[in-house]
Amino acid sequence: MRATISSSSVPSSSSSSSSARFGCSSSSSSKTKRQTTKATMSLTMFTRRHNRRNTTTDTTITNKAIQDPSIETTGRLNETLEVEDTASAIFPKIGMHPDREHLVEKEGNFSWTKQWYPVAVADMIDPLKPHPVTLLGTDLVVWYDSVGEKWNVFEDKCPHRLAPLSEGRVEPDGSLLCAYHAWRFDGEGKCTAMPQANNQREEERIKGNPLSCASSRPTMEEQGLIWCWGESSSGSDETVKTEAMMTPAPVIPEMKGVTKSGEAPGGAYRNHWQMRDLPYGWCAFFENAIDPAHAVVSHHTLVGDRYKDPAGFACVVERPTTDNAGFRCAMDPAVPPFNTIGQYDGEASYDFQPPCLLKIDWRHEECRFLTSHYCVPTKPGWCRHLVATVCQRNEFKEDIQVRKHRWFKLNLFTLTSPAWMTHVLGPTFLHQDMVLLHQQEKIVMKKHMEESPDADMGEKWKDQVFIPTGADKMTVMFYKWFRKNGPIPWKPGNDKMPEIEKDESKLFDTWEMHTKYCTHCKGAMRNTEILTYASLAVAFGYFLSILASVDYATALLAAADEEYSLVGVLRRLPTNSIYSDMFSCFSFLATAYSLDAFKSLFKTYKFSHSEDDIMAEGTAKIGLANDGPSLYIDLVDTTLFGGLSKDNKLKEHSRGCECSNCDTKNFEGIRSVVMANRVRKRMAAREDEEGKPWERRS
């Protein structure tokens, strides 16, 4: 995968191993094995003592909170949820990219502008055109330099008369042309052509003036995304470029080296990136995405049942909250949709890493799904969402239990779906949240603005919600982080929250939010239109054939010198062909109607929780949203990972090995603290420690 940065280079992702190690290497001698077992048992006892100590501490705090109401400052938020069980976080850097582990210990407040943000998916936008994007309230333009073979990001204004460069043209010479006066700029932002100059000498003199340069930003392409630095560089000032070069982006090691087919070194598979603009803000997105309890309710029939699946769970802190590294928590147990209630053989962790990354890490003895959500703060009341999932497989068991998991089935389905199919079905999931979040954040803001206009979003939220249970712990932790590190530094003049959108045609406008800039979906939409017209044309052809048959039967009736009658005509129709033509005509008309209905999904998809949704119900009908066997999933799993081979083994390199093409450090899964304790118990009971796919070996 290409990774370039305009004006400077960005350090490549390190392949050094993470510090989140749960196991140890096996030894050839029995003495070493006994020592290893003894050490792991000691570590287990150490963990238990700490967990008992934390449980006692939490119970004391809870009892004190009940006896002393002053501990709860608002009476709405159970503030014991803000107390983190940090002693259980045995591996404080778990889940961090090796290049970003230092952020866990970095001191100082979080800086919103000195960060990398993914602003677009490289294979989703047209490289022959400039594309407008927004970041932190600032309008930007993304364009591709075909000569330098790199993406660039400028502020969306020409230095001449401030015309939007996104309305310009990308020229074959690798420059961006302003459509107002034809000034041209190279990838560094320098002006390369100024037609209004009187002569060459004057043009060179003006082009040498820093005021003639477009405001460029450090840019790079990594893991299929176009990354932009949070602030612009000006002229010859190298400070911003140096800061960008020294700051690692929050990339995903497991997605390193993924090809267009989705296959990655080490046998992992990644589905296609999704990207769309959502009509609710950055805080609303993370408040929702980091909340496991809402999934089976808001996404009824897609991932669960709102009436049967909701259940309580505890949040175990795996990586304590820090300003620059966020936090990571595991569910204990991982309730639906990650497991069936009462059968907890899979587990899930949520990993928030500011400014824009949330990883949902689902692990099973036979499989791992790592879903990476990027949420970019574009402007108040809006965000840009990018998401992809990578799958890793372990050795297959005899009965392959993981195939019965709904989370496995839903995610595996997306691995083989074409990009346009994944994108067009995205709103069936996202709009279930959108109808709630679009209004929720504005209700929070509007009520509190009347009382305290200067309070930030974290305080507004805390002062109004009612949080009595531990199921909301991660959301509480998120807003605790935001109260300290917010608010978002929007560009002055573009920092007002919009009103609630009542027009459904605008709220559910998938064309504006996604399709208009997605090359995959525009191509699929165009092909759907072609198929629609082709179906109508074929149906019309069969209709003409029916008319010809009727005309022929009428002629036969006239030749027989019989009086004209409908019965007589019908009696002389060629029975076999006329019925066949009628069936074909209606079939192609129905096909055209269905294709036209499908095409409408590229433009709009309306949703209401008060009504049953036919697409969501369809997902449940085919068994993807329910736990249990599925022939389709068996086929997909077999095709991708070779699970039904004669020797019942994975394909070569399926989960990483020691060959030159694989990187086990990047493609081994990461277990949470909850599962780490279980792994230690197994290690203590076994002498042979080989074959544990999720444990790192020294």
Q: Can you give a write-up of this model?
A:
With 698 residues, this protein is of the alpha+beta class. Residues 6-74, 653-671 and 692-698 have low confidence and may be disordered. The protein has 18 helices and 19 strands. Strand 7 and strand 8 form a beta hairpin. Helix content is 35%, strand content 16%. The protein has helices spanning 30-67, 200-207, 239-246, 282-289, 295-298, 406-416, 419-449, 457-464, 473-485, 504-507, 510-513, 519-559, 566-572, 575-600, 614-621, 631-641, 664-667, 673-685, and strands at 116-121, 131-135, 138-145, 150-155, 169-170, 176-177, 184-185, 191-193, 216-217, 219-222, 225-229, 269-270, 274-278, 314-322, 326-332, 346-353, 357-364, 367-379, 382-393. Helix 12 runs antiparallel to helix 14 (575-600). Strands 12, 13, 14, 15, 16, 17, 18 and 19 form an eight-stranded antiparallel beta sheet that branches. A four-stranded antiparallel beta sheet has the order 2-3-4-9, with no helix packed on it. A four-stranded antiparallel beta sheet has the order 5-6-7-8, with no helix packed on it.
